[in-house]
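Thought: the user wants the 3D structure for the chain below. I'll pass the sequence to the structure tool as-is, report back what it returns, then summarize two notable features.
Action: structure_tool
Action Input:
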Amino acid sequence: MSLRRFLARLRSVPKREEAERELDDEIRAHIEMEEAEQREAGVSADEARDAARRTFGNVMIAKEASQDAWIFRWLEELTQDVRYGLRQMRRDSGFTAVAILTLALGIGANTAIFSVVNNIMLRKLPVQNPEQLMLLKWTSKPKGFYPWDGYADHAGCDSTDPGSGNSNCSFSYPVFENLRAHPKYFQSVAAWGGHTNVHLDWGGKLESTVGNLVSGEYFSTLAANPLVGRMLSPTDDQSGAEPVTVLGFSYWQKHFAGNPNVIGKTVGMNGAAFTIVGVAPPEFFGIQSGEQPSFWIPLHSRERIQKTTPKDFGIQSAWLYVFARLKPGATLEQARSEIEAIFHSTLAAEASVDSAFGGASGTPIGKLSPTDMSIRVKSLAYGLAKFSGFAGPLLMLMAVTGLVLLIASTNIANLLLSRASARRHEIAVRVSVGAGRMRLVRQLMTESLLLALIGGATGMLISIWASRVLGSLILSQAAEILQPRLLPDPAVFGFTAGIAAIAAVAFGLGPAFASTRVAPGMALKSNGGNAGGSRRMGRTLVAFETAIALVLLIGAGMFVRTLVALKTVNPGFRVDHLLTFSIVTDRMNISDEKQLGLATEIRDRLVQIPGVESATWANAPFLTDIYSRASLRLEGRDDPNGIIVDFATVGPHFFHTMGIPVLEGRDVEERDCIQRAPTAVPEADKGVMWINRMMASQYFPNRNAIGAHTKGGFEIVGVVGDIKNETLRSEIVPTIYWAGRGAFVSFELRSTRDPAALAAGIRAAVTALAPNLLIEDMKTQEELVQFALTPQRTMAQLSSCFGILALVMTGVGVYGVLAYSVARRTREIAVRMSLGAMPRDILRLVVREGLSPAIVGAVVGLFGAFLA
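Observation:
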């Protein structure tokens, strides 16, 4: 038997021990057989044994070959490569430190951004089978059937629908009831009524807190179990039922010391007594990620904590987000078709009995039908993204940090090429003694993987700190809520490992192949050999990273320019010496007359405080992204669907206090606020109103707007200057103002000195008048402006940091090319200097070689920045 045949047979043996025994037996049997044949031929015993061994072959080689067949040789070689790589890293400690720090910054930045994205966009709801949850959404054709007097726009619903007149996730209570009663393809249907602010009284301590209004099926649809007590049930959500509440875990821990005996106790909410029936588990936050409600109460308890009207639970008021859990085996299309049929039947039934239905937009019912509206469904597995507005900036930051990591990888590739020039002689020697090219590539890639592994681990540590900083910068108010969830989890670890491996391949593979492309003879004779390919690769990499760095720097400059431009925008009113704070008198459970009287008394006391020039109120402070919109019809104009305007409810001397110029007519007076407060449909009321300059020029281009009326008798008594109501970036739109009561108001005070110094006097004045009335959100208007600029400021700061980091990394890359060039051309430089070249000539030669690829990269980067 030949040695090759024997080894082939040996590999088929299932266990290594059996293979070794068979090897020994085979060698012994073969030698004995050969010895016997030799003895029969008359050969002596010693000569016969030697002849037998010669016939079989080298026994040690056979044993080594057998071991190679069974021992994982690659593992032994990997161990050798790792040891050698660690020695190389220790030997080149400067290079190692720069490479690891560069990688750690790139990987850490990417991991930190991914950690934030993962927690607010990619993490599923912590409930059972979240993929079965679906959110409903309606869409309307252009100028189609539009039944709502108004609808809620809670965060997390994408209200844009290309090709549609309008879209939203809000439904009326009758629609929800009908869907809940016909669950053919659903396990259950539930509704979320958004947030509610209350003054909560526990043990005589009054504080303002935020909870959620939910239907009785809310917790069962989400399959959420209580930590203590029970969750809400459908029997709790009925008109006249005893008011009950479920506490959030964090609020229970913070304000009730985690005491399980609170179950059955009562707490005051806006003066109404609610019984605590349960506590939610710590991981549960509802359907809106990024928030942590203090409590949940039934929808029908809304009337206990705030004023409601029968219309709130009618077909005209859309304020509920409806979601459902699919039955196993049911498809989204089946569910959508069923929901749409129920939706249309509900609208048709309501329209037939309610003559006002369909009139909110001024459209006769006979011309259009409920089929002009359709239903869509979207997955609720990831919840409603409270910070959906941050999705764009976060994804942009992901792209930016990805480019930073690409620069880091390119930079290290350049450094590896530079170091390879010093190791070319070593590689040539190893090739000369028989080392294969792939074996050398594997050795060099092992060193790259070691750098990536250490850099990734360091980057993970950096990301833990960086993710908290990013959370505070980007998410501001929710940072405290998200901090515990920003710690690394398996997804973040997997992401870090993945980008570290990709980075290792990106910066290691090219230099490894370039470094091993050597001619041993020439390399040994010239102590380095020709490195034209490596030189070209290094110059290409420098041009590449210069282009990327320039794109990032110019992008950062654009963000900074946007921030500067927004800071200089004139909002249309004076932001200096203006203080705002909010009160909610309807949480004190007092009548409308007393509410108006209380607001007036508070204003009268405020103007008596030294330093207060004037005071007024509005339904919301400006530049806080809070606005109200309504449909309005003017006399003398044929607008069947009305005109859409923004509106604000204001108090006495509002325009004087805010510094808004009154162009025509008069300011708001005290007598204007005594009249009945307008509703969301101004035509239904009698009274006075003010319009902005844009509305006057658009709808009264050839006549004076003063004295004009809306259909219904609302009279225009003033034209005022245009302001930016929502944000500094918003466009000027037609806006109306009317005088209103002070039920839910934001007071505005114009002062003659630092407005922040008035805080103590304001609190004392309000407390003396109404001890149980809480003052909320006291800020100067300048602080509100700064807060409104937070997203732009954050993007400018972060992009500038990443741009500077990219510039520094590119500088290190250029240094690497220069160092590589000098190391490669040392002999040439010596010859040039011996022939009379001056140091400045050598410097010019080296600098030109290093900067030429950077100039090419700058040109490419300018073009890329123009496209970006």
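Final Answer: Structure generated. Confidence is low (pLDDT under 50) at residues 353-367, 477-481, 676-685. The longest strand covers residues 186-202.
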